[in-house]
Design goal:
Shape: elongated
Helix content: 40-55%
Largest sheet: 6 strands, antiparallel
Distance between the termini: 60 Å
Number of strands: 6
Order of helices and strands: HHHHHHEEHEEEE
Strand content: 15-25%
Radius of gyration: 25 Å
């Protein structure tokens, strides 16, 4: 019975301290796939899982050490596991204090509001040229003319197989035409110009 009570205390202390760490290290940075997908600035799921796995390994090692030390001398269970959980979650704390100040917050918010993502297809509607150029920092997407009025982006991707299908619809002011010698991969459909690229 004593062992069960001790385990309950350990779990409770760990959950409380871990919860506080995760909440206190949360920030209001603007994240969305529309910004991260083409700029390579996102934190991959495997990177995040790696941080969690490292925290788990540290905690398990500390948990074992606790019972080894406890056989020889008495330890304060609350203090020990509070410190252990802090050490295990050190990556979250370090990242919070070393994170650079956020820039371009307003344009990020506008881009995120214009985008939807279901995990397979990313849709971004009615971007202006500045917003489009912002998500195209790596120049993976095609460049746009200065007279760009509005841009819609549809991007289907399969991260597992590496397949993708990219469609960009470009609207320019009425009466103007796109220079097809410069933008040779764009086709006119009567209302907008379209760029399409895919990989199967």
């Amino acid at each position: 019975m004593k062992v069960l009570i001790e385990l309950i205390k350990i779990i409770a202390v760990t959950i409380i301290v871990g919860y506080l760490i995760l909440n206190l290290t949360q920030n209001d940075y603007v994240y969305c796939e529309a910004i991260d997908e083409f700029s390579n600035s996102s934190i991959g799921i495997f990177d995040y899982l790696g941080v969690i796995l490292l925290a788990f390994i540290i905690w398990i090692a500390g948990f074992v050490i606790y019972f080894l030390i406890k056989k020889k001398k008495k330890l304060n269970i609350y203090l020990y596991f509070s410190i252990l959980t802090l050490i295990a979650f050190h990556s979250f704390i370090y990242n919070e204090f070393t994170r650079a100040p956020e820039q371009d917050r307003e344009i990020k918010i506008r881009i995120c509001e214009k985008s939807t993502d279901d995990g397979m297809q990313l849709n971004i509607k009615k971007l202006n040229k500045n917003e489009y150029d912002y998500i195209n920092k790596t120049n993976w997407l095609p460049s746009l003319p200065n007279e760009t009025k509005s841009v819609n982006v549809k991007y289907y991707r399969d991260h597992f197989l590496g397949d993708f299908h990219l469609i960009i619809d470009l609207e320019i002011p009425l009466g103007q035409k796109l220079d097809t010698t410069v933008y040779s991969k764009w086709t006119f459909n009567g209302k907008t110009y379209r760029f399409e690229e895919y990989q199967d």
